[in-house]
Specification:
The chain is an alpha/beta fold. Helices cover 43% and strands 20% of the residues. The radius of gyration is 13 Å and the shape is globular.
């Protein structure tokens, strides 16, 4: 069975790039353009992992992560925050609201693919 991933980001170029990258790696991909859409898709499709931007309209990634962790049906969803907010306080806040991992933009696609595989327990390593 193919692992389902949700990508939530309000920047179209990043969304398209990440969708292509994750599909190329063999994942089933859902996309959301704001925090509320992300929550709606999480509840409807229960993906295994969400790549979550912090700064989005309607609900921030921090809010989405908090709601996700408070929902018994979704609390085990893996969360990888992808954001331009890279200060130590931002990272601490992301991990504090329940993110499993935190990467800052710009990021290496190879590093992202490796991090996703590690989170999902695939154990693959990038060359």
């Amino acid at each position: 069975m193919t692992t389902r991933i949700l990508i939530a980001d309000d920047e179209p170029n990043i969304l398209i790039s990440l969708e292509y990258l994750m599909k190329r790696e063999g994942y089933e991909v859902l996309v959301a353009r704001d925090g509320q859409e992300a929550l709606d898709l999480l509840r409807a499709h229960a993906p295994r992992l969400v790549l979550l931007d912090v700064m989005m309209p309607r609900k921030s990634g921090f809010e989405v992560c908090q709601e996700l962790r408070a929902d018994d049906a979704l609390k085990d969803t893996l969360v990888l925050m992808l954001t331009a907010k890279g200060r130590d306080t931002d990272v601490a806040k992301g991990l504090g609201v329940g993110a499993d991992a935190y990467m800052t933009k710009p990021f290496s696609t190879r590093e992202l693919v490796q991090r996703v595989a590690e989170l999902l327990g695939a154990g693959r390593t990038a060359a």
